[in-house]
UniProtKB/TrEMBL annotation:
Encoding gene, per UniProt annotation: ARSG
Domain Sulfatase N-terminal as annotated: residue spans: 36-379
UniProt source species: Vulpes vulpes (Red fox)
Record's keyword terms, sorted: Calcium, Hydrolase, Metal-binding, Signal
CC cofactor: Ca(2+)
Lineage of the species this protein comes from: Eukaryota, Metazoa, Chordata, Craniata, Vertebrata
Gene3D superfamilies attached to this UniProt entry: Alkaline Phosphatase, subunit A (3.40.720.10)
Protein name according to UniProt: Arylsulfatase G isoform X3
InterPro entries: Alkaline_phosphatase_core_sf, Sulfatase, Sulfatase_CS, Sulfatase_N
Pfam families: Sulfatase
Signal peptide: 1-25
Family: Belongs to the sulfatase family.
PROSITE patterns: PROKAR_LIPOPROTEIN (PS51257), SULFATASE_1 (PS00523), SULFATASE_2 (PS00149)
Amino acid sequence: MGWLFLKVLFLGVTFLGCLYPLVDFCPGGETRGQKPNFVIILADDMGWGDLGANWDTETKDTANLDKMAAEGMRFVDFHAAASTCSPSRASLLTGRLGLRNGVTHNFAVTSVGGLPLNETTLAEVLQQAGYVTGMIGKWHLGHHGPYHPNFRGFDYYFGIPYSHDMGCTDTPGYNHPPCPACPRGDRPSRSLERDCYTDVALPLYENLNIVEQPVNLSSLAHKYAEKAIQFIQNASASGRPFLLYMGLAHMHVPISRTQLSADARGRRPYGAGLREMDSLVGQIKDKVDRTAKENTFLWFTGDNGPWAQKCELAGSVGPFTGLWQTHQGGSPAKQTTWEGGHRVPALAYWPGRVPVNVTSTALLSVLDIFPTVVALAGASLPQDRHFDGLDASEVLFGWSQTGHRAEPKPVMGTSDRSSIMSLPLFLTWKMMLQKLCL
Ligand SMILES: *[C@@H]1O[C@H](CO)[C@@H](O)[C@H](O)[C@H]1NC(C)=O
Ligand SMILES: *[C@@H]1O[C@H](CO)[C@@H](O)[C@H](O)[C@H]1NC(C)=O
Ligand SMILES: *[C@@H]1O[C@H](CO)[C@@H](O)[C@H](O)[C@H]1NC(C)=O
Ligand SMILES: *[C@@H]1O[C@H](CO)[C@@H](O)[C@H](O)[C@H]1NC(C)=O
């Protein structure tokens, strides 16, 4: 009896052993021991309704993104972790809400701090797992000393330290209010507008060096595309898996003027800017397709909703107009916790893995990117802290439709009110909007 059992066991194990090479495929995403590459593209101030696939208005300006939606999965209930820039980006890179990672406000040009150094970024986790890591674009998580991206897990960095309206340029572009160009020679150029920065010319960094100052806004998108393509090329040639995180300048103001003059059909600045962004994403996707298709997971999303005070230079919230709000002179957009402030476009593209032309209604968030990417990379989450997202790979691969459940879980005994507008702020807001747009 004992022998028979052992024989059966032995045969069984041998049989499974033979099968093993055939089933060397795990939900974690590692096929034949190859770790997947990740490209995470984050648009700035883009509205849910700006994506043609989400909200089909008469002019569609996002042909490449719409194609990506048809070739992958589009999430319609996907949310930023905050409705302003720095907190949203800090959450993406730490997988934690602002109340936990310490970033609840935007950093300024004069900030000497940044994302707290005790936080571990997604790039650091992947670097440990053998990845080549790159960041191209707007950082906005502190730019001095140890807060610079090169010290936060990125082997390569090319971009601007904060928003491109936080410094003057030679070609100011469309903004609301319009801001003057950088002063030339002895000519002072002080703007009376509170929102215009004339003291510091916007710098462009490559790793730790400033390579251009002021930035030429007209050629920034082209430079981002060029560097992204180079990075993907170099990383692929190195034989190591890579993470590329891109913080686009689009659709934040100012919107560069060349975009409009280059547009033969004379579209309005916002539409022309949207087309330029779409083309930039298209170029990156093409490079991925040519270099590392089927082993690269491309994720496109936004940092928060459109910036209502920028009027015709702001994007569309789609159906999330918050009529009650707008009738009161308020807004359901960026800087608010109303739907249009944090519901953002989101697309996942990974040929052969993410099913094509699927719309997912699963409730997911930018906070889920960290645990999902870490799981797909076969790495593990730091054990000494709480993460606010979930591993969404089952949803991405079409095996589940369940994202977060609607009931909010209590966060360390307090509720997260960090980004809910206070009444005085709301009233100031209302007055500003009325002054600006009406
Ligand atoms: C790091 O410090 C910040 C600010 O003091 C705090 O909010 C956060 O919880 C700390 N993070 C970790 C991982 O301990
Ligand atoms: C800025 O870039 C545009 C587009 O590439 C170019 O035509 C222009 O000459 C550049 N301006 C400067 C000051 O280099
Ligand atoms: C890619 O590699 C080339 C050759 O080593 C180097 O000159 C270039 O700076 C690299 N580019 C990026 C974006 O890593
Ligand atoms: C995607 O799905 C929609 C509706 O489900 C369909 O109308 C469309 O033709 C599909 N597109 C492609 C490229 O398969």
